[in-house]
Amino acid sequence: MLMPKSHRIALLFNANKIFDREVIEGIAAYLSSTRSSWDLFLEEDFRLRLPGIEDWQGDGVIADFDDPAVAAALARSRIPVVAVGGSYENVNAYPAGVPYVATDNFKLIKLAYEHLIEAGLRHFALFSLPEAQENRWAQERENAFRSLMRRDRMEAEVFRGQGTSAPSWDEAVQQQINWLHSLPKPCGIIAVTDARARQLMQACMIAGIEVPEQVALIGIDNDPLARMLTRIPLSSVIQGAQEMGRAAAHLLDQMLHGARLANTRILVPPAGINVLASSKHEPAKHPHVMRARHFIRQYACQGIKTGQVADYVGISRSSLKSYFRQELGCSVHDEILRFRLDAAIAILERGDCNLANVALSCGFTSSQYMHSVFKRELGCTPRAYQDQALQGQAEPAPDPQFQHADS
C-alpha cells in the first residue's frame, strides 16, 4: 500500500489566543479525519515569529491574517497560502489572490445583540479596542454594531478605552468606570472579546454596579481562562473557530493537489452562545433583592450564609427573607444553593474531576450534601450528571460546510 505524500506545512498563529488555538484544533481535526500527511511547523512555544519566514522551504502555509505583519510577510509567497481572519464589510479589504476563511463579524455581534434583546433590555453599548491596524477585526465588529443600531433607530454607544498596559491600568479602569456610570440603566453591553468583557466586569465590581441587574454583559470567544478569572460566570458568543480550521485545511489540501482557489472566501457563522450569569438579566422590583443577588452571585461558592448577605445589603435577615419570598418566591438560602449548583454543573461538564474537590470549590459543606442537592434538584447523582454531559459532548460533530454562509 502506497503511503500518501508528506507535505511540509507552516501554521502561523499565536496559540496563546483562544481563537488561534481553536483554529489549530480544527486543522488537527481535519488531518485526523483524512489520509493527508502533513509535517507541521509551529514554534515550540506556539508563538508567532515572522523573521526569516520568507526563507522557509515548505509546501504550504495557513496563517492568521488579522495580523497585518503576517499578510505583508506572505504577500510574495510562491507556495500555497490560506488566510484565516475576520470578515470585512468592504470586500476590497480582503487580501487579493489568497483564499480566505473568515469569522462572520456581523453575525457574532448580531447574535449577542439579539440575546440581550431577549433578556428584556432596551439600552445597548459596545466595549471595543483602540483603533489600530492589528485591531481591524474589532473595528469591523463596531461597524456591525453601528449598523444594527441604525436599523433599529437607536444611537450607537461605543467605547474603545485603552489597550492593556501596566503603567496605565488604573487610568484605564477609571475611564471604564466613568463610561459605565454614564450609561442608562439597565444596559446590555457587548464586549468584542472575552478578555475585554473580563476587564469591564472587574470595573463593574469596583464601581458597585450590579451584573446583570444594571449591566448585562456578554463577550466573544467562549474563553475558559477568561471565565475562570471572573467572579460572575461570563456569557460569551462561541466563534466557529474550529470549523474555520477545518475549512482552511481542506482548502490547502485541495491546493496542494493542484486546485486553483485564489480569491475563494468562506464565511463561518458563530456556533452559538454559552449563556451564563453575566447576561441573565432579570429585572428586580426591589433594590434590596438586586443587591443581595449581586452579592450572592459573586460569593455563593465561598460558603456565605443568609446573615452575611443581609449584612451586605444593610437590612435584617427577616426583612431580606420577606423580600425574597415576595419577589422571587424562594428563600435567600435557596438562591445561594442555586448558584452553587450551577457552579458545580459547570465544573462537571468540563471533564473528569474529584467530587470532593468540586463540592469544596463550590461552597458545599461536603460531597454528600452536594450529592443530596443533585438528587433533589436534578434527579441524578453528580457522577451520573457528568457521565451524561460527557456522552453528549462525545457525539460526532457535523461535517464542515465549505460554502459561504448567508449574511
UniProtKB/TrEMBL annotation:
<dbReference type="InterPro" id="IPR018060">
    <property type="entry name" value="HTH_AraC"/>
</dbReference>
<dbReference type="InterPro" id="IPR009057">
    <property type="entry name" value="Homeodomain-like_sf"/>
</dbReference>
<keyword id="KW-0804">Transcription</keyword>
<protein>
    <submittedName>
        <fullName>XylR family transcriptional regulator</fullName>
    </submittedName>
</protein>
<keyword id="KW-0238">DNA-binding</keyword>
<dbReference type="InterPro" id="IPR054031">
    <property type="entry name" value="XylR_PBP1"/>
</dbReference>
<feature type="domain" description="HTH araC/xylS-type">
    <location>
        <begin position="290"/>
        <end position="388"/>
    </location>
</feature>
<dbReference type="Pfam" id="PF12833">
    <property type="entry name" value="HTH_18"/>
</dbReference>
<dbReference type="Pfam" id="PF22177">
    <property type="entry name" value="PBP1_XylR"/>
</dbReference>
<dbReference type="Pfam" id="PF13377">
    <property type="entry name" value="Peripla_BP_3"/>
</dbReference>
<dbReference type="GO" id="GO:0000976">
    <property type="term" value="F:transcription cis-regulatory region binding"/>
</dbReference>
<dbReference type="InterPro" id="IPR046335">
    <property type="entry name" value="LacI/GalR-like_sensor"/>
</dbReference>
<dbReference type="GO" id="GO:0003700">
    <property type="term" value="F:DNA-binding transcription factor activity"/>
</dbReference>
<dbReference type="InterPro" id="IPR028082">
    <property type="entry name" value="Peripla_BP_I"/>
</dbReference>
<keyword id="KW-0805">Transcription regulation</keyword>
